[in-house]
Amino acid sequence: MRRYSFTPRRGVVVTPKTAEVLLTAQGCVHVPANFGLVVVEACASSHHVELIFEQGSVEITHEALTRLARSDKLLYAGSEGVYFLEVRAQSYYKLRYLGEGVAPTVEIDGIHMHNIVGTDPLSDARRKVELAGVRRGARVLDVCTGLGYTTSQSLLRGASVVTVEKDEKVLWLAEHNPFSALLEKAELILGDAFEVLDELEDEYFDNVIHDPPTLALAGELYSLEFYLKLRRVMRKGARLFHYTGAPGKHRGLNIARGVAQRLRRAGFIVEKVIEGYGIVAVRG
Description:
- This protein is an alpha+beta fold.
- Helix content is 24%, strand content 34%.
- The chain folds into two domains: 2-84, no CATH class; 121-283, Rossmann fold (3-Layer(aba) Sandwich), CATH 3.40.50.150.
- The protein is built from eight helices and 19 strands.
- The mean pLDDT is 95.
């Protein structure tokens, strides 16, 4: 079990909207950054723009700003350099811009990892935390950290959080995301949740938020064996929210039905099945 030292980056995130402003700027002006959450000074020249912020200054070329303005990507500018918030490995990861003042989602090979139709990532995280019944003073286990939005919302409710994430590339993106900054206040474990749970204390957690990848990508996190592990680390009466979504619904598949059956076999009392969304259960 490896604890991850989450370190928010201290530069600024430039959005496509800010890029448009910078490309038309003349002289020194104040412009929005970090999705409009802060304002920084920018001084424009014929070939680049210099951003001046609390930690120093950095130059961004017009070429990079033009690319940004025509995309749904995000650009980081800080003491570490200027680069797009994307990772090209076996899969392609990026932070996807959803609008000013809106928390971004992470996309992996073009598939977004948050609900963004009719909602936004933070609103959806609040809903999950509410369904899990998180309260002040609670001990929360957040399985599959991602960008840390459910962890952040649990912390804002006054809970303490242990959160587990397998993919270090997602955490690297989160470190650049202003909406993920509260993750530094959680206990973040880097590892496979299926294995990490074996090392956690018995009957410790008051609430669990389980938001795994799809069944096709992480079938072990939907298994009876995994639910038995969850039950072991939860105190009696502890509440679980398990996000399922509705993959395969157009093919007549009902993922939630199988999840509910396995949860019951593992010793949970299923209180609510929210069609196309998730399941609320209590540890018996």
